[in-house]
């Protein structure tokens, strides 16, 4: 019965993505990737979980419902790094000697679709700054639901949504793994599949609140609403009891504070931040322990909480380099870590070497599975992105600059997160937000004139 329920939900979301126009497609896509975890299987064979199904559908909608797709892709500011990334991934698949020819083709395609292509799709379906505003505020409304359910998790010490899905699909119940029978720290996950991943989602939502609170043109609700949302997001972030999302947010938020906030507003905003932290600590005193343990992670003492200290990460890096040297150019292939090294998120099924621990960094994944060509693809993509953003600073108005600083902050936070604890499926959400941000930046350009807008409308109607 449970599987039928999720199939019906998938069909409903799919129908909305197909029939809706422009940014509304993106809204339904967001609902899917935020609320439906990767453990939900839509098709048993070939194995297709919800994220894979929804992104393939999203791509098909673009190609079937639009003409002149090549022209539209060429207008995308990151078309070159996106194309190079795809070619690099395709080569990784072709040179993977472990798998058959069909898998050599499909694995890199699926990996590219699930991690990168959505940045272009999100960019394409946004057509105005008003739609950017609607997307941001819709996301914040979604996170109101997340945080309210997070409070329920905290009070009841149980995540019924995660438990329900785990029972249906016989998957690991991460939502309750750290509540009734986990390690020494209690952690919430709300609707997310894992507390650490939930922390990543919250950090992005907090950065969006920071922008919307400062930029009146992005506001739909009262400023009091955004203050309440910020408080709920911050409270939930501490209740995830996860160091990496907190540290990643601090890095991203620090950049945003330094560059996006006017000098005369810095003191006022800093005071608001202090008051918020004091309020959270007074409500949840154990938050101080998370801050203390986060600091200890970067010292010789190490953290007493479950996870990796710097010393442990050095051991993992050394072990990863050994595997990297077996196939340094094209890597050992996608899924090599789980299929050949025996790594599993379930401890009783894990047979990988103890030196690898939990493969707690995206760097290890790059070294082992993607090799030099995968490292090049990722570096080229993000370096190209930063270069584009810095160039655009001189071409946009004040709101455009704030959108640029938001994008840089999100990227800093995202990179810090995946380096600190692996990607955990975070690429799809980040790349979707990145696509929205990039279109907002382009629309904020001082040089956006009627000819550009006319060209956009012609492409939409074609």
UniProtKB/TrEMBL annotation:
<keyword id="KW-0812">Transmembrane</keyword>
<feature type="transmembrane region" description="Helical">
    <location>
        <begin position="245"/>
        <end position="260"/>
    </location>
</feature>
<protein>
    <submittedName>
        <fullName>O-Antigen ligase</fullName>
    </submittedName>
</protein>
<feature type="transmembrane region" description="Helical">
    <location>
        <begin position="371"/>
        <end position="390"/>
    </location>
</feature>
<feature type="transmembrane region" description="Helical">
    <location>
        <begin position="220"/>
        <end position="239"/>
    </location>
</feature>
<dbReference type="InterPro" id="IPR007016">
    <property type="entry name" value="O-antigen_ligase-rel_domated"/>
</dbReference>
<dbReference type="GO" id="GO:0016020">
    <property type="term" value="C:membrane"/>
</dbReference>
<keyword id="KW-1133">Transmembrane helix</keyword>
<dbReference type="GO" id="GO:0016874">
    <property type="term" value="F:ligase activity"/>
</dbReference>
<keyword id="KW-0472">Membrane</keyword>
<feature type="domain" description="O-antigen ligase-related">
    <location>
        <begin position="229"/>
        <end position="377"/>
    </location>
</feature>
<dbReference type="Pfam" id="PF04932">
    <property type="entry name" value="Wzy_C"/>
</dbReference>
<feature type="transmembrane region" description="Helical">
    <location>
        <begin position="267"/>
        <end position="284"/>
    </location>
</feature>
<feature type="transmembrane region" description="Helical">
    <location>
        <begin position="196"/>
        <end position="213"/>
    </location>
</feature>
<feature type="transmembrane region" description="Helical">
    <location>
        <begin position="49"/>
        <end position="66"/>
    </location>
</feature>
<dbReference type="InterPro" id="IPR051533">
    <property type="entry name" value="WaaL-like"/>
</dbReference>
<feature type="transmembrane region" description="Helical">
    <location>
        <begin position="108"/>
        <end position="126"/>
    </location>
</feature>
<feature type="transmembrane region" description="Helical">
    <location>
        <begin position="135"/>
        <end position="155"/>
    </location>
</feature>
<feature type="transmembrane region" description="Helical">
    <location>
        <begin position="402"/>
        <end position="421"/>
    </location>
</feature>
<keyword id="KW-0436">Ligase</keyword>
<feature type="transmembrane region" description="Helical">
    <location>
        <begin position="78"/>
        <end position="96"/>
    </location>
</feature>
<feature type="transmembrane region" description="Helical">
    <location>
        <begin position="26"/>
        <end position="43"/>
    </location>
</feature>
